[in-house]
Amino acid sequence: MDSLSLSLKIYKNLRRHHFRLLFSLSTSHSKKKQKIFSFEMVGSVGFVTVAGVVAGGESNGKPEPLPEELINPESLLAEEDLPIEEEKPKREIVLGRNVHTTCLEVTEPDADDEVTGEREAYMAGVLARYRKSLAERTKHHLGYPYNLDFDYGALAQLQHFSINNLGDPFIESNYGVHSRQFEVGVLDWFARLWELEKNEYWGYITNCGTEGNLHGILVGREVFPDGILYASRESHYSVFKAARMYRMECIKVDTLMSGEIDCSDFRNKLLQNKEKPAIINVNIGTTVKGAVDDLDLVIKTLEETGFKHDRFYIHCDGALFGLMMPFVKRAPKVTFKKPIGSVSVSGHKFVGCPMPCGVQITRLEHINALSRNVEYLASRDATIMGSRNGHAPIFLWYTLNRKGYRGFQKEVQKCLRNAHYLKDRLQAAGIGAMLNELSSTVVFERPKDDDFVRRWQLACEGNIAHAIVMPNITIGKLDDFVDELILKRSSWFQDGKIRTPCISADIGVDNCACKLHK
Amino acid sequence: MDSLSLSLKIYKNLRRHHFRLLFSLSTSHSKKKQKIFSFEMVGSVGFVTVAGVVAGGESNGKPEPLPEELINPESLLAEEDLPIEEEKPKREIVLGRNVHTTCLEVTEPDADDEVTGEREAYMAGVLARYRKSLAERTKHHLGYPYNLDFDYGALAQLQHFSINNLGDPFIESNYGVHSRQFEVGVLDWFARLWELEKNEYWGYITNCGTEGNLHGILVGREVFPDGILYASRESHYSVFKAARMYRMECIKVDTLMSGEIDCSDFRNKLLQNKEKPAIINVNIGTTVKGAVDDLDLVIKTLEETGFKHDRFYIHCDGALFGLMMPFVKRAPKVTFKKPIGSVSVSGHKFVGCPMPCGVQITRLEHINALSRNVEYLASRDATIMGSRNGHAPIFLWYTLNRKGYRGFQKEVQKCLRNAHYLKDRLQAAGIGAMLNELSSTVVFERPKDDDFVRRWQLACEGNIAHAIVMPNITIGKLDDFVDELILKRSSWFQDGKIRTPCISADIGVDNCACKLHK
């Protein structure tokens, strides 16, 4: 084995990184600690190999809050030498630094590598360890809305092909290695789900939920070039990113305790800006609390403040719940029979997919308007990305065909049931917790231990954390989680005496379990 | 088998679509024609199965010109009933129509599907046929710059995981199932290639070349909010898409015959707009002609017209040749030692990858400036997409490690040699052809037969077509192509008498093989 290919990169602050790495391991994984030491004793090669696994694992960096938290701009200015960590260190945000020390360097093959097979052996080793860490990480995962339970074994045969749906899904390209027939099959299914006729919709399979939002808001802006974008404070950060990218005026609307848009604030803000058309982002499930904006009330508010249907455009960001809501009987319907312009949903979330993807559906008339009026299309491509992953549509097509409407319905019911179970268990243990109706996102008191947060991959914001109950989250896993939380929680307080924090500002008085509110 | 799940969707104009489909098959694939008829005789089920394969294959729609060709807006207004095709029909562009009739519909599983295995069998059948069509299409492919020769068998084991590098590559997220350690390894390699220090660059693995351009131009705009975007007419359409998305003033610069930017026109346009900073898109290989803009001359022109280094931002769109040029000794260098702001390159092109991806590298100072000055980051995410495909970095890492610098060098040399071979053979056959120095894109007289164009998946624009010689294109394949072209060409002219068209306006007098110029 070539020692260069495995050497740890030397940085000015390597030494501290090094100690830090060991330190964080020693607190959470005592078994691994020994392993590292023994590796160190046999030289640098083994050490770096372990570092690689660790990077794939869990030990680098402090936990990351949810995207809504603004970064501290000062931290971006940080010099080489950051202050020594205090006992409760603030997470350092140093763009372009953290991961370098643990990354898997690309190295030149030796001239004789093909003969000796050393290179192949090295890479096989890296991949095997990486695979093991992925399996471990997949097992302990609660915080992100990804369904990690899928079996696409039948599709492995397609990985050999460079499948690219470049450009428009409905217009064949000369590039023959595409999967439009699957893509349009999937799009038809979603158009049917959201009640838009085949000859009245346009859409495509996107790279992720963000691309759906970028597209929906862009369509809105092209329909109303001087429109103002309205979005609740708890909207996904990509919505505000879009506003800045597209140079649109953007007004943030307040939210209720549940996380839903506050329509009385919305009304006031509309009345202050009656002269300009409105482009509204409606959340079908917010990122943090899984709150579903009341689409009907949003429309009613627009109508009552004098916005006719030709003066507003609604984009529904259905990242996760856009695909769950249709299967819940009592849920308000997302449908193109209402005056909405576009709906986007993620494909890797509820459906589950090896890579991020999403579905974007809009009205064909808007895409036509786009191309006619603003000469938007430099080509016949009305997508945001030019080349598009042709594998994603096949994954989606495969799952939709296998599970069907009824299969999804069952899974949604299971998720909602299990989410209630989690909330009930937390509350029974005296831990403040909230679960919105129609949601499988359980919000609760942020665990005070970063290792615990990292181990269960919880997403945190301020004083709260959340777990999202997806189809791969069983009652057994939830029990393991709650049991461990209860077991460890007392040790996070001085003298082991639990002082339940007040999080009523985040989840409301009724859900808070602090001394005052319980 | 469930006949509903296989039924052809009925459209008003189904009948014509139907006949058209058969017609196009009968002209180009006489063997298949018989097959279809025989299937028809046994009922609709077999017929649709064949239609599915056809859609994965080659028979739907007329060939697509390159993206630069503007769509005919009238065509978007087309009603249900389009005019009957003439002998040389214009390609119909009807958004939201073409592919519906041939798509693979998603259908509900039957209640007993799990018992009978019917559904699994049906899907396995669809996939097997699809796989076959992909293999066929991959074999006959010349027009797009994708290296279709790769073997990622060792990575198939990772398809079971939902790998997502959400957010910034350098800052770990709580979501543990990521591949940042591979991603940063790849980024380091590219930063080294383009000579930017580890602590001075920022970058990420994108979803495609377009995302790289969108990002580079956005960085340029945030550095110079009132800057004017300059790009040659032959720039990729995503550059002009970016200008419209970002509401930037954009000035198109003329090109030379080779396809390179015309710096004397550039100079004039700069002089007319001296009061505003300049953001310049420099093409390291244009889409159609593979022309490489003269980066040094662009910088010189900027300097000579009084633009100091703090008044311009250069983004290099290196989609294909950005990764080939570094391996050509005599090629002008793309390097951050010159005053450039960002470079992007596609990963699925020269490297080869099952799905589109790309690499974007920029200066860390710009990303910092971005976050400090314009509060661009709603999160610590300076990427365009939020969730990002975690498999792509592993594919790239794998190939870079296996082939290394020397491996790429060999492949680049082979491509350039084979491109010369193709150009020479075409010219020897009396067919006008052009090959830019440093390029493997051979531009030639557009074949007059759409079936031929489709079969070889050539990209066409106006009177010219091109073939791009990638590592998977052997001399044998080029010989097959030229032999077939020569054989069929005479039949495309009346009386079989070849009248070589004049394409000197596209490829220059020296390269044209028409009666006047040869």
From TrEMBL, chains A, B:
InterPro entries: Group_II_Decarboxylase (IPR051151), PyrdxlP-dep_de-COase (IPR002129), PyrdxlP-dep_Trfase (IPR015424), PyrdxlP-dep_Trfase_major (IPR015421), PyrdxlP-dep_Trfase_small (IPR015422), Pyridoxal-P_BS (IPR021115)
TM annotation in the entry: none
Pfam entry (one): Pyridoxal_deC
Coiled-coil stretches: none
Names of the cofactor(s): pyridoxal 5'-phosphate
Origin: domain of life: Eukaryota
UniProt catalytic activity: L-serine + H(+) = ethanolamine + CO2
One GO BP annotation of this record: carboxylic acid metabolic process
Gene Ontology MF term list: carboxy-lyase activity; pyridoxal phosphate binding
Residues bearing the modification N6-(pyridoxal phosphate)lysine: K349
Record keywords, A-Z: Decarboxylase, Lyase, Pyridoxal phosphate
Family stated for the protein in its record: Belongs to the group II decarboxylase family.
NCBIfam families, A to Z: PRK02769.1
Name the UniProt record assigns to this protein: Histidine decarboxylase
Organism in which the protein naturally occurs: Acorus gramineus (Dwarf sweet flag)
